[in-house]
Amino acid sequence: MRAIRVTLIQVGVKLRAVAAEFGADLRTAALQFSAAPDVAAALVVGAHTESQVLANVSSMQQTIPPEFWAELKRQNLIEQNAPTPTMAL
Q1: DSSP label at 66?
Q2: How far apart (Å, rounded) are the C-alpha atoms in residues 11 and 7?
Q3: For 71, which of 32, 57, 64, 85 is 20 to 30 Å away at the CA?
């Protein structure tokens, strides 16, 4: 169990490093990545406040560079065949 936690922490550190390199917000990337597969008919995101709703909308309107997604694949942080927002356009 401890090894799993350490691995997850290491993945988080790597994700934050890639996000910082490309100036991407991880929350925004997570929302957009979740919406990328064409099998997803809808993305339901929780929000408790108006500001959270506005942040969600803003995240879906931001552009994340295709190089960000390519780097995640290069580092095996996402599957090689995973659909990304760039691919979904």
Answers
A1: H
A2: 6
A3: 57
How many domains does the structure of the chain reveal? 1
In which region does residue 37 sit, left (phi positive, over 0), alpha (psi from -120 to 50) or beta (all else)? Answer: beta
Helix (H) or strand (E) holding 24: none
Q: Is 13 exposed, middle or buried (0-12, 13-18, 19+ CB in 10 A)?
A: exposed
Average pLDDT for the chain: 91
Name the H helices within 1-89.
Answer: 2-22, 26-35, 50-61, 66-74, 85-88
Residues in contact with 27: Cβ distance below 8 Å, sequence separation at least 6, in sequence order: 55, 59
Residue range(s) defining the domain that contains residue 20: 2-88
Tokens of 36: 């990328």
